Amino acid sequence: MHMHATLATSQSQWLRDVDEWISDLDMRSDGRENRRRLARVLGFNADWSTLTTNTLTWSTISERTGMSRATVARHLLALHEAGWVGRVAAGRSAAAKQAAGWTGDDAFLNDAPVYALTTPVDDTAVDINETPPTLRGSKEFPARAREAEPPTGAATRPSHPEAAYGRRWTVPADRSLPAWPGHVTPRSKDERGLAGREWARRVPALRKLSDKHLRFLAKDFFTAGWTIRDLVTALDELPDGRAHGQFAAGQWVPYSGADGIPAARLGHWVSWRLNAWRDPEGQVIESPTQRRTRRANSARREQEARRVAEARRRQELRETRSTPEYQAAKTACLEQILGRNRRHRRRG
């Protein structure tokens, strides 16, 4: 039984509504948490203008949620049948694309299925599989006026689960969905291909290189846990924070980027700049994100150590002040002070 559904009004509202629905389900608590975790992955990876996802394969969802593919499939089906997710297009493997005659770099990448964030509106039995929803709406899956009319000013996208219940981010309404999130380390070959595409989108000079070539250039860095944001930083800066450059007359002089470098030499330029982030043995060093995380964790540990030390000091002080010896000394001191006050009053 499939619910009649309409396109959600916003990501944040969809996250709130689906979270409330999951909380009311009569099922085990671990099952509710798994379904909530999967729903949040869908919500946070949906394009904020179309409310659809096009980068989430089952393998990606499985990795990000820690659930098996079978569990992912079960919860996706439950969300779909309840009217919270619409299947717009099925995924397609690289092998299927090649068999269909695809060529070029895209032929070696799996196409993720496209899901839409929807809201159930009634109990009408409608099979969304038989009448796939479109971004312009259909009889079984009408889109709100929001799809035909761009949002005024900006659309909203929550940055993390807590943001879905309060603080909002404003982003350009015409911003397109990135091929790969800039803060997530790609793991598989396909994910690295998408990450290479996003790298080129963020650094236009790299568009002279194919996604496959960029994936090769970044392979060691992705293996070391780097992200797209780290790679962009590494092309601009040295590990010590200075811009890439050279010494001239005893001074460090930054120089420009790759805009004028021909495609035949651009790969060497990228490797040369990234190699500044390797140690003398050629191993990739910690990324800018990893460095910030390490320093933040170190600061938190130091703060916690100071807090524990202060708590221990106060506990020891309380224990010392509760001993008979301390109480006797305290009483004697008070008696001495009171005695001095009495003698002072008699003299006066």
Automatic annotation (TrEMBL):
Comp. bias intervals (Basic and acidic residues): 137-149
Coiled-coil annotated residue ranges, if any: none
Gene Ontology molecular function terms on file: DNA binding
Domain of life: Bacteria
InterPro entries in UniProt: Tscrpt_reg_IclR_N, WH-like_DNA-bd_sf, WH_DNA-bd_sf
One family name in Pfam for this protein: HTH_IclR
GO biological process per UniProt: regulation of DNA-templated transcription
Domain HTH iclR-type residues, every copy: 54-87
Sequence segments annotated as region (Disordered): 125-161, 284-304
Protein's recorded name: HTH iclR-type domain-containing protein
Organism, as annotated: Brevibacterium casei
